[in-house]
Amino acid sequence: MTHAYFRHREQALGQQPADVLLTNCRLVNVLSGRIEEKSAIAIAGEEIVGIGPHYQGREVIDCGGDYIYPGLIDAHIHLESSKLTIPECARAMVRHGTTAVITDPHEIANVASIEGVSFQLDTASDNERMSVFFTVPSCVPAIPDPNLETFASYMGPTKLRAFFNNPWFVVLGEMMNMPGAIYGDRKVLAKLADSRDRGLPIDGHAPMLSGRELNTYIYLGIRSDHESTSLAEAQEKIDRGMTIMIREGSTESNLRTLLPLVTGLNSARVVFASDDLDPIDLAERGHIDHILRIAVAEGLHPIRALQMATINVANTFRLNNIGAIYPGAKADLVVAPDLETFTPRSVMRHGRFVWRDGAEVPMGRKVDRFLRSTMNADLPAVEALRVAGSPGATLRVIGAVANQIITEELHVPAVVSDGWVQAQPEADVAKIVVFERHRNSGGFGVAYIKGLGIRRGAIGSSVAHDSHNIVVAGVDDADILRCAQRIRDLCGGQVACAGDAWAELPLPIAGLMSDQPFETVVAQEQALFRFCQEVNGTPLTRALSTLSFMALPVIPTLRVTDKGLIRILPGAYPERVGLWV
User: Which portions of the chain are predicted below pLDDT 70?
Assistant: First the structure.
């Protein structure tokens, strides 16, 4: 009796026909760095069983001289940020050649703890188009200090152990609590030790970390990072042993800055990631294929670029049998006419076409179960949002940075009328408010922000990384409160308003995701972003995406939570600071 592992041995030997035989293709070999002309690939079940001539197949497909390369892998993404359920996200991604992702579910874990992670795991099983590997969410919340923000969930070492024996959890997720790791927080070290004991890789999150603090962070076993925003920062990290994830998402654009890091001597230690990707960007520009197009246009060799999107990721996270084309590998393949646009003609995952001849292949199930309501917000009266001030005083203002999620600390003269600080739309200074939405506490924090470009009304979101309270920015207090009320009434969502004019994207699943098809969500987001520009007056194409990161108290330099203004310096514990300089 043949062992189950080797049930396709006779097909590999050519004694039996393969289930599918792809002929007349140019095989991109990311292992050897060669293109094998006029090749053939024999597939049985989910696996590649042979490469080369003299194979027969029950179904023979002439690829017409197209290239075949491994299915693309996103090294780090939060699928919740797509605002789509996993089956809908997979529908959107496979058409761009993505066949696997490593997703960190800490967004939904911050809202709904283990129940939320289980929801994502269950819905991943409803999807047959794309392999979804998970990270164990290491920092729920990002910083477990109730003096810094109100959070819904806490996942300590004991809770995390529930995930370690699940084969779909392949890495300890990004260690955002840098100070806790570096300065020896007992529970943080326990999470790191548990991961090392079980042989799980450990992913990092170390914006601007350098010197002895970086050495200590890496010494603890943290081996990858996606937060580099400068070439010098990425160079130091790769010199010290980290795998660098070059990130290109909707609000984090580091690709062109970091590409000069890549050489023939170090490219095996570099991978591509999107981190957070809006559905409109996924629809209009693509996924990892978008990154490949830019990288090749900037001068990176196509095969090296593909290695960074396939085998390098598989090697980093010890994912067996994907990321390359060889006998015994899963048949995750992309058929494409060129290595410049990387536009798939067909995509195969585990030996089945999931995108064929430019069309979607129906499969899988729609999500038919949902989470309990996670919107519990007691909102204040509009008068409570006012900030008292004196003429001549100087405000401490969050400075949003274009195409990045880091911020600056700005000092701006306050404009005061009748004793109350006013927004300054002509100077691009808006009020920003975070409303607690998990415990019905009525808590909120107020600050000011420059860089969103809001001229009228308000914009708001229940996607507010990572604790996901309600964040609203605007130039009118009444609109700010109306925006927050509408988000609450929707059970979560993104809203823009100006007086009686509205645009909205409902996100009823944990306040993070829609229950609608991909196409519907894209249309809703397009209308919302147009409203932000045409009515609210912001010049930003993705103002709500930028806003969603303004409450994350682990990324330098200034943030706002429901507890007020927070300052974060690299490697140091966050601290609350006042509005006034």
Answer: 1-2
